[in-house]
Amino acid sequence: MLVVKEKVCKSILNKSGLADYCLNCYTGCENNCIYCYARFMREYTGHKEPWGKFVDVKVNAPLVLEKEIKRKPKGEVFVSSVCDPYQPLEEKYRLTRKCLKILVENEFPITILTKGSLAKRDFDILKDYPQVELGLTITTMDKNLKEKIEPLSSSSAERISTLGEAKELGIKTYCFLGPFLPSIGDSEKSLKRLLGAVSSLDLDYILVDRLNLRFGVWGSLYPFLKRFYPENISKMGKVLFNKKESERYSSELRQRVKEIAQAFRLLEKVEFCF
Fold first, then answer.
1. Residue 78: which of 10, 154, 18, 168 has the closest Cα?
2. Domain range for residue 258?
3. Phi, psi for 122 (deg, rounded to 5)
4. Which of 189, 93, 173, 182 is nearest to 141 (CA)?
5. Which of 197, 198, 134 is nearest to 169 (CA)?
6. Do 82 and 144 belong together in one domain?
7. Is 150 exposed, middle or buried (0-12, 13-18, 19+ CB in 10 A)?
8. pLDDT tens digits, residue range 22-69?
């Protein structure tokens, strides 16, 4: 059961390593992705619930943004860095939408990254704004795997459709492919399906990432592997914990992605995050 708490925040436009600022209207994320790198946020919340089972809603985020934006230097805003800005609760609270309006009105450059097709709702705000780019994360085209690793996010097909509609409206678009799960979501067949699925979208660029060992990730992955893929525990453990094996895996994965991207005429758009 998801625990939702409405809270007030003191700041919403914060410094970030991903852009000049990050904007997170929610703490926690109901998408409950098993590989989520934002699990460290649980340490600051006081929640006893596991990551993915709670969301704090910053109900005053638009009001705080209206005040902050008048006194902070103009800069690029990343929406969002430690939550999904279009997780299901956004349909009710509309905080991301309200904040995007404020950012656009004040002419701040915006980069959005989400797994939610709910982003389509806000195309009326984004379509005529030249300083925005919309990215959708797509990890796999395997429906069964997607349901296991990203249970409450939009389907991969819906995400691809969202990117296509955005591009038709003239919105700058990109795709974040990954993180790929070693020996589960990174096979030749899987990568070809994924790159092939986005090849017709005319994306501005494509980011590619592998699974990385960050706070809480192995603690989430291990029960998942034990339940669904016990035969892969050893191999994934080596990729994550053995430096030499990790480097070998990264090099081999980059090469395979390059070859497949070249076949789909996407290589010049691919940027690796590892």
1. 18
2. 137-150+171-274
3. -100, 15
4. 189
5. 134
6. no
7. buried
8. 999 999 999 999 999 999 888 788 888 999 999 999 999 999 999 999
Q: Are residues 146 and 269 in the same domain?
A: yes
Task: Give the number of domains in the chain.
Answer: 2
Rounded Cα distance, 57 and 40, in Å: 17
Is 20 inside any structural domain?
A: yes
Cα dihedral value 148, 153, 158, 164, nearest 10: -120
Q: pTM for this structure?
A: 0.96
| 32 is a domain residue | yes
Retrieve residue 44's tokens. Answer: 């600051």
**232 and 106 fall within a common domain:** no
How far is CA 197 from each of CA 90, 138, 163, 200, 240, rounded to the nearest angstrom?
27, 10, 11, 7, 28
- Tell me the per-residue pLDDT of 101-139, one tens digit each, with 9 for 90 and over: 999 999 999 999 999 999 999 999 999 999 999 999 999
